Amino acid sequence: MIMVTICLLCFFLLFLSQLATITAFVVDVPTPSQGFGGTASSSSSTSGKKKKNTKKKYNSKSQSYYPDVSGTTKLLLEWLDEEEVEGLESVEIGFRKKEEAGDGLLRGVFAKRDIQAGEYIMAVPFVSTLLVDESFEVSSSDNEKSSGDSGRDNSNRRTGEPIVGLRFWQKFLNKSDDKKEEKYEAYLDCIPLTSDDPNFDSTPDFWSEKEIQQLEVPIVVENMLSRKHAIAGLVETPQQSNVNGNDDNVDDDDNGDVPTSISTLQQACWIMQSRGFSTYKKAIDLDGNIGLLSRVVLIPFIDMLNHASRTQSNAEIQVIETKEYDESFYALVANQHIPKRTEIKVNYGTGEETSFELFCRYGFFAPTDDDEFFLENQEKERAALEMLLLPEGNTTTSPWSTSLKDDQDMIGTKIGRTEPMHSILSLRIYAKKLLLSSSK
After folding, report:
1. Which Gene3D superfamilies match (predicted)?
2. At residue 199, does pLDDT exceed 80?
3. Whole-number Å distance between alpha carbons of 117 and 56
4. Quick one: pLDDT band at residue 252, thresholds 50, 70, 90?
């Protein structure tokens, strides 16, 4: 009996020692200096893996989004894992109801756990991005960006240039090219390449000229029509110099092909306009000239993040570049505490653009009634609008074909809730409210 008791006691002590080892492994998470998930919240999320079987199923009533469980998204995540993208366990692709139009779903990225301010959420290696365009410009003065600077190029929106959209199509979408890169197939299958895709949002690039004219802000209308005509021009009247590689805007390695359909090129240009990321850094070319090397890239997964103003965004994208290209990466960093199930959003521009500038660049209308940034910057917004509408200071002529009440009544109708009319009316209502507030 004594021997049995001793054996049982030894077995129990051995079990406790093994349990202690497992627990130590689970809670032993990296320190903040070691990279991802380095805050105190990481220990709870890591130890939570032991409770996998007791985790409640998703409840649409308790969560603000619906997880994307499609086959294409699953393949994308598998590919990103193979590409050694870090932080995938902390985020999730999902859908939330559109706030702007009141119906439909908008795809975005959501936090699967609490994320602390300053924490690295995820990182995508340079080698896993799509390098669409690269150019070098000799510096004209010593007042250029300081040596070693690297970041988003907001002063030169090259992503919106139609020629960049054409290069994207030529390098990654041209199915007639036998040498087409197939590495990014899982990523390309997840971005809306046709207007039939449920994740496609119709921006002014796809509106008719009559619909664009209904915006009734002259400079905005001119900007949209000019871009629309430039895209059409690349398809309808391709320059001979483009084919021969003699045009300064075309790289020597461009294959000269252009899509046969305007809508195809519109789609490629829209993807670069809405998802493209421009970076710059000081560099020296082979002739010893000092200048800026700029790149236009697509960053898989991170480019699914939606926009929020400077005051409402909760994350930012940073460029972490080393001497070795294959060791450099784009990082998503939290700039405030992000609670679990919250959508992760970044500011697309510098944070200083007016709502009208954002509309011209990205095709969506940003302000909301509770957005602190636009409430605090109404004077700036109003001044920009008055310059757009009445550049010569003539305040006696109304540029509008309808009244504020007409637009407010219409936006509540079925037609007014449908795009593009919803965006058109939203911009006009906001502009009219701004002008009325200046007269009080």
Report:
1. set domain protein methyltransferase, domain 1 (3.90.1410.10)
2. yes
3. 27
4. very low
* Pick from 249, 204, 197, 247: nearest CA to 227: 204
CA atoms of 382 and 390, how far apart (whole Å):
11
The whole-number average pLDDT for the span 21-48 is 33
Identity at 10, one-letter amino acid code: C
The amino acid sitting at 223 is N
Residue 132 exposure: Cα atoms within 13 Å on the Cβ side: 30
Q: What is the phi/psi pair of residue 137, to 5°?
A: -125, 125
Measured CA to CA, the distance from residue 140 to residue 143 in angstroms comes to 8
Q: Which is more confident, 72 or 419?
A: 72
pLDDT over 70 at 343, yes or no: yes
Element (DSSP H or E) covering residue 234: helix 218-236
pTM of the predicted model, to two decimals? 0.76
CA dihedral 107, 430, 421, 109 (to 10 degrees): 0
Query: Contact at 8 Å (CB) between 275 and 300?
Result: no
| Cα separations in angstroms, 162 against 227, 234, 361, 416, 420 | 8, 8, 13, 30, 22
pLDDT beyond 80 at 158: no
Helix (H, G, I), strand (E, B) or coil at 256: coil
Max CA distance (Å), the chain: 106
CA distances from 424 to 52, 351, 355, 385 (A): 47, 23, 13, 15
> Among 20-29, 73-82, 97-106, which is the least confidently predicted range?
20-29
In 3D space, the residue among 134, 428, 150 whose CA is nearest the CA of residue 295 turns out to be 134
Residues in the chain: 440
Compute the distance between CA of residue 274 and CA of residue 363 in angstroms, rounded to an integer.
Answer: 8
Q: Is the pLDDT confidence value at 91 over 90?
A: yes
Sign of the alpha-carbon torsion through 248, 249, 255, 260: negative
Rg, C-alpha atoms of the chain: 26
Tens digit of each residue's pLDDT (9 = 90 or more) over 159-190: 878 999 999 999 999 876 565 568 999 999 99
C-alpha count within 13 angstroms, C-beta hemisphere, residue 111: 27
Query: What residues does each domain of the chain span?
Result: 377-440
Strand 277-284 with 150-152, pairing: antiparallel
Name residue 151's beta-bridge partners.
280
pLDDT for 194: 82
Q: Is residue 304 classed as helix, strand or coil in its secondary structure?
A: helix
Q: In angstroms, rounded to a whole number, what is the distance separating the alpha carbons of residues 351 and 372?
A: 13
